[in-house]
Amino acid sequence: EADIYQTPRYLVIGTGKKITLECSQTMGHDKMYWYQQDPGMELHLIHYSYGVNSTEKGDLSSESTVSRIRTEHFPLTLESARPSHTSQYLCASSLTSGNTIYFGEGSWLTVV
Amino acid sequence: EDQVTQSPEALRLQEGESSSLNCSYTVSGLRGLFWYRQDPGKGPEFLFTLYSAGEEKEKERLKATLTKKESFLHITAPKPEDSATYLCAVQGSYNTDKLIFGTGTRLQVFP
Questions:
Q1: What DSSP state is assigned to residue A54?
Q2: Residues 27-66 of chain A whose Cβ lies under 8 A from any Cβ of chain B
Q3: Inter-chain contact A105–B42, Cβ cutoff 8 Å?
Q4: What is the C-alpha to C-alpha distance for residues B93 and B4, in angstroms, rounded to an integer?
Q5: Chain centre to alpha carbon of residue B83
Q6: Chain B contacts of A101, Cβ < 8 Å?
Q7: For residues A38 and A53, is the Cβ–Cβ distance under 8 A?
Q8: DSSP code, position B111
Q9: Per-residue CA distances from B9 to B5, B58, B102, B104 (Å)
Q10: Angle formed at CA B70 by CA B68 and CA B72, multiple of 5 degrees
Q11: In whole angstroms, how far apart are CA A74 and each of A23, A26, A44, B29, B103?
């Protein structure tokens, strides 16, 4: 079972607010990811990291930013939230490239 | 372009009624095909990884198989607790940084 934790699980915020979604894993995995998923739709990769101080953009363009200062921690930040950012954000990790990717429980963000 | 198509979109089964879910894929050099289970409001839970055509894996009532163009998830004698969305994803050998996901099959098992 994957030990990857996301907070908050559910959040409703107003337009223009800054929000950080937290993600931590205790498995010592090098690679971490953020996926975005709208209800009934596919998961889309928005950010990933090979390790500390590494961040890369995924396939789906996103106004969010990420940082990787510690191996176990990969937070995602939205500087100014908009209703179009309403979605589920899923954090994931894998030991290295090509290994199985394990997901957290997700953070549901609603911007009103 | 790498692509994953899952069918059917939704499946309703009576408890004990066996069936199969399909995942058709196109990818440049398959590195791995993954099956996940996703319950409403939660993140995907890893089930299986298949690496080459002919490979099969089993877990309880689930069995996953792989050919060069598609994968099947066979569900034998399902129970209501098997109700979930089942996601298929592929990883290409040229880009192991990401998974390409299908939209999933939403399975409902009625007692």
A1: -
A2: 31, 33, 40-45, 48, 56, 58-59
A3: yes
A4: 15
A5: 13
A6: 34, 46, 99
A7: no
A8: -
A9: 10, 23, 10, 7
A10: 130
A11: 5, 12, 17, 30, 26
pLDDT tens digits, residue range A16-73?
A: 999 999 999 999 999 999 999 998 888 999 999 999 999 999 888 888 999 999 999 9
pLDDT digits (tens, 9 = 90+) for A57-77: 988 888 899 999 999 999 999
Please tell me the number of Cα atoms within 13 Å of B1 on its side-chain side: 4
Q: Cα(B49)–Cα(B33) distance, rounded to whole angstroms?
A: 6
Q: Select from A70, A69, A71, A109 the least CA-distant residue to A89.
A: A109
Query: Exposed, middle or buried: residue A31 (CB in 10 Å: 0-12, 13-18, 19+)?
Result: buried
Rounded CA separation B22/B6 (Å): 6
Interface test with A, best of B47, B98, B100 (most A CBs within 10 A): B98
Strand partners, A101: none
Tell me the one-letter amino acid at B96: T
Strands A102-103 and A43-49: unpaired
